[in-house]
Amino acid sequence: MEDRKRNAWIYTCIDAPEDTHGALKQQYEQINAYGEQLPVEIIGCSSDVGGSENMERSGLQEFLEEARIGNIEILLILDANRIARNGEVRDTILKWIKSCGIQVLSLLEGEL
What is the rounded distance in angstroms from the CA atom of residue 52 to the CA atom of residue 71? Predict the structure, then answer.
């Protein structure tokens, strides 16, 4: 019996105010390749630029809305700094994500 693929979301983020060098696309391609090795189905993705430390980022909000609905089982990111560079803020956001039953997998750091 084959295991069911779990629904995953890709989130990318950069500190720069614009993505002039294609960094978001690079992140997405790296994370997508990682996701292809896992038993997941990518159901969506979002991204942010500017490196804001609060939760008022449109890409993060898009992910969080889907998380509230319950469609996402796994969040795929490059590293924990994509969520927030500030440790306290990052831990708060990660705690909320995990409280929704969502597993957070980082390409560079493994399971968070």
Answer: 25
**pLDDT category, 1, cuts 50, 70, 90?**
very low
DSSP one-letter code for 81: G
CATH match for 9-111 among 3.40.50.1390, 1.10.10.60, 3.90.650.10, 2.40.50.140: 3.40.50.1390
Q: What angle do CA 69, 40, 52 make, to 5 degrees?
A: 55
Task: Compute CA distances 47 → 2, 23, 60, 82, whole Å.
Answer: 32, 11, 7, 10
Give DSSP secondary structure letters for 18-49: S-TT-HHHHHHHHHHHHHHTTTEEEEEEEEEE
Element (H, E) at 61: helix 58-69
Q: Is the pTM of this model over 0.85?
A: yes
